[in-house]
Write a structure and sequence with these properties.
Length: 255
């Protein structure tokens, strides 16, 4: 496990998202080896494979992964035996239309995707539908989980990152440190994105120490954190009786 400095920032405005979107040299090189790093952190695309806006770039690559990504997981939960845990005590199970998570005994459940090996630079995306539960619940994505085996929803201890959004639209990127949460980027108030009713598309993009969280295609939070270098990925639901369905889960890896 690596260690390093931390800095967190929120991206509440479109202008900030565009500025922040011309991110790091590792990201530019992963997307376009011929991209040029400019003063102020911007990247000039020279082969058309890096969009001018960061959120657009992530969305573009997710739609066309063959250019610079390989697909590690593409799950619609439409068949049995897919490798995702099912546990009646933790209330995680495959149902018609998706994968349902409803914490009953702990404050949250976190479930690992069937990857088979830890990953580092990835874009993880999922479609969530809130079905019911008490107010204040949250759901999100897990990356760089240090658990050596697939997380089974029963184990709430460990070291991993979570990017989440709650019922009011507030967002956060957190680090789990054994049995505690360390906030890395937390909104000061509800974002423009609300989750009540309908589907919510979440994306968490990780390149080196840069973690960027997108909700429905909009960049909402970002942080630098070099503590966890690689690990497993998965889904997260927080709040007792928070009832959430995951309809789709996709992992793209930089190559």
């Amino acid at each position: 496990m690596a260690s390093g400095p931390r800095s967190a920032e929120m991206i509440p405005r479109e202008g900030d998202a565009k500025r922040h979107g011309r991110v790091s040299t590792p990201y530019a090189q992963a997307v376009s080896p011929s991209a040029t790093q400019l003063d102020g952190g911007s990247v000039a695309p020279t082969d058309g494979r890096l969009a001018r806006d960061y959120a657009d770039a992530v969305a573009e690559l997710a739609r066309n992964p063959s250019a610079v990504f390989r697909v590690l997981v593409q799950e619609h939960f439409d068949h049995a035996g897919s490798g995702w845990p099912e546990n009646t005590r933790a209330e995680v199970r495959r149902v018609e239309g998706g994968y349902r998570l409803t914490p009953r005994h702990e404050g949250f459940v976190a479930v690992g995707a069937p990857l088979g090996a830890p990953v580092r630079d990835v874009v993880v995306s999922a479609t969530f539908v809130k079905l019911g539960g008490r107010p204040g619940g949250a759901f999100g994505l897990v990356i760089r989980d240090q658990l050596p085996t697939q997380r089974d929803a029963l184990n709430t201890l460990g070291h991993f990152y979570v990017a989440e959004i709650d019922d009011s639209g507030e967002v956060a990127i957190l680090q789990r440190e054994h049995d505690r949460w360390q906030p890395l980027a937390v909104s000061s108030g509800p974002s423009a994105v609300h989750v009540a009713g309908g589907r919510t598309e979440l994306t968490l993009e990780a390149v080196g120490p840069r973690l960027t969280f997108l909700v429905n295609g909009s960049a909402v939070a970002s942080t630098h954190d070099a503590v966890l270098d690689r690990g497993g990925v998965g889904v997260f639901v927080g709040g007792l009786d928070n009832d959430v369905l995951v309809e789709r889960f996709v992992v793209h890896s930089f190559i």
